[in-house]
Write a structure and sequence with these properties.
53% helix; mainly alpha; 3 strands; single chain
């Protein structure tokens, strides 16, 4: 080979994955951190929607999950394989059904704690409510603006959330 050919990248053969490796399930996580604040907001939002197919079941599931945790916790670490699988299987369907409801948008906007905050200082409790709402909205596929004036404090509050194990 010439010096120029040696300098060029050489073609590396591409190995196709075997059928056994392409059908193997992804590895199971050892734990999953969930937002209890998001589950609480989901529960609250569903209660304000008109009843729909599956809403009672969703509320019972949310109640069963939330009953296991003290309200002072914003996050929970699921370690049990069955709990992880149940959460991954059920919660996304609850959210999909919820956001398809006709009143979802108006109820969602009515729950937004960012309303009526202009021209005054905000407490940590108000900022935490905004953070929780924005994070839950992100899980639901929406984006909520937050006051940039409080960005550093909001980041501190978000990082200080308590987690149940």
């Amino acid at each position: 080979m010439s010096p120029l050919q040696n300098a060029l990248p050489q073609q590396v053969p591409f190995n196709q994955p075997t059928s056994a490796s392409s059908t193997a399930p992804p590895p199971r996580p050892q734990y999953l951190i969930i937002g209890l604040f998001a589950l609480r907001l989901t529960q609250h939002l569903i209660m304000y929607l008109n009843p729909y197919a599956g809403s009672d079941t969703a509320l019972r599931w949310l109640d069963a999950v939330l009953r296991s945790y003290d309200t002072r916790y914003a996050l929970a670490k699921l370690k049990d394989r069955r709990s992880i699988e149940d959460y991954v299987r059920v919660y996304p369907g609850i959210v999909r059904s919820m956001i398809r409801q006709p009143k979802y948008r108006s109820v969602f906007m009515g729950m937004n704690p960012n309303q009526n905050v202009e021209g005054r200082e905000l407490s940590d409790e108000e900022l935490q409510a905004m953070i929780d709402f924005a994070d839950a909205a992100g899980e639901w596929g929406s984006v909520v603006s937050l006051p940039s004036k409080y960005a550093q404090r909001m980041e501190q509050l978000a990082n200080a959330r308590s987690m149940a194990e």
